[in-house]
Amino acid sequence: MVKNTPGSLYSGARPEEVAADLINLVDFQTEGMPLEQLDSMITDCLLPHLMRYDHPGFQSMFNTFPSPEANLGSRVALDYNQGVTNWQVSPGGAVLEELCCQALCKLFSLGAEADATFMYSGTYANQQALYMAVHRYAERQSFDLSQKGISGFNDPTRLTILVSQESHFSLRHAVRILGLGENSLVLLPLDDNRRIDVDALQQKVRDLRNTRDILCIVATAGTTTTGAIDPIEEIADLCVETGAWLHVDGAYGYAYKLVPDWAYRFTGDDRADSIVWDPHKQLGAPIPNSVLFVNQKKEFSRMALHSSYFNRPGDEEPNPGIKSLPSTRPMSALPLVTILRGQGLGKVIEGLQSLLVAIRALAETLNTHTDVEVLHQPDTGILCFRITPEGTPAQDLDALQHRLYQRIMSSGERSISMINLGGITALRLVVVSPYTTYEDLWETIQVLRLSERQ
After folding, report:
1. What is the pLDDT of residue 453?
2. Lesser CB count within 10 Å: N end or C end of the chain?
3. How far apart are CA 220 and CA 165, in angstroms?
């Protein structure tokens, strides 16, 4: 049986070793097992192989452990196991979700007609946003997408969604599931800081005017590659000109709008038709916990399905389920409520700002060192870079980054990312957990340097 070593992120075991430890857990038998024995088995067999997101060396992805405040809300949600999509199954859960959505719209300074719904993940929220965009475009073509599907369009191959080259892969899932196909996605060039190049976007719109129908433009508020925030205001202007739906994928980065000194970077978000945000990232809300905002609450009517026994037409009670796909959904609003009420906005904002300050300080430090190449100015809490020792041939740098990544990951003491960025191999640090500081990030750089010399 593989055990964690002190200070490790996880056991470091290979997949076959993990499987050997877990096989007894899935040996389903006629007779049950005492809870104490089952608990001991989980502790011994499973926990060593789970990633410690609260470890300061976890600097690779977008996960963090729930805070005590989040645990309070999730414990109640789990104890009562409430489905909250309609009043009949949870009066309190349904009303709490509606009130929370209204409060979140105000918190993010969205318009008076804005609304929101909770989703399982940013992937599903992106999918629903694109469905609503296609639905509105169909209405302008005088048919109901929910009845005719994309066959209602004269030429569905003309349907086009413009997205950043570094947009999230969930958008590819979305167009597949919607029947549009990946050919409907047109990738947009980037500027020097990995944001959508507005001039190139305008030229692309002109180039496609006679051959494609642009129904949606997607801006990303914090790409998962470099954390870049696309110029939402300028893109919103172009959406007004073209009549396209503006969707903002802020699953990772939108939380940073709450930081006063960073809010200006999201200017124009109140003009977006839809926005995605994942509280399960920086705020540590238990998964699943994603939010889909719309600028006009009426947009959710495109999702409404009614039945004879709940979510009936004309019901006076709140039924959040008519705003999104799942007919069963957990009480995700409660852990977010307990986070925001328990910590207070001041502490939440302080925590978010500390992440931004840490990664910005690291970038400034690395810019003074000749053996590290910083590849972008960080907009949020992500930094991509390369270790570039003096005398290393340029053609060998990609292989060097790969070796360094493998060495640091095999240690089990810290976790970083490796990424292809503009055709080159780069290393990436992500700071999401409040347990990770500038000093922890700098230590990772030092470990990489030391590893390169070995």
Report:
1. 78
2. C
3. 10
Residues linked to residue 292 through DSSP beta bridges, in sequence order: 117, 276
DSSP H/E element including 102:
helix 91-107
> pLDDT tens across 230-261, in order?
999 999 999 999 999 999 999 999 999 999 99
Distances (CA, A) of 112 to 145, 259, 375: 28, 22, 40
Residue position matching structure tokens 């005492």: 34
CATH number at residue 239: 3.40.640.10
SS3 306: coil
Q: Which domain holds residue 81?
A: 70-339
In SS3 terms, 261-278 reads as HHHHHHCCHHHCCEEEEC
Structure tokens at 304: 């409404």
Residue 384 lies in a domain: no
- Domain contains 132: yes
Helix (H/G/I), strand (E/B), else coil: 445: helix
pLDDT in tens, 162-182: 999 999 999 999 999 999 999
What's the total number of domains in the chain?
A: 1
Tens digits of residue pLDDT in 260-289? 999 999 999 999 999 999 999 999 999 999
pLDDT of residue 75: 97
Domain assignment present for 271 = yes
Instruction: Confirm whether 36 is domain-assigned.
Output: no
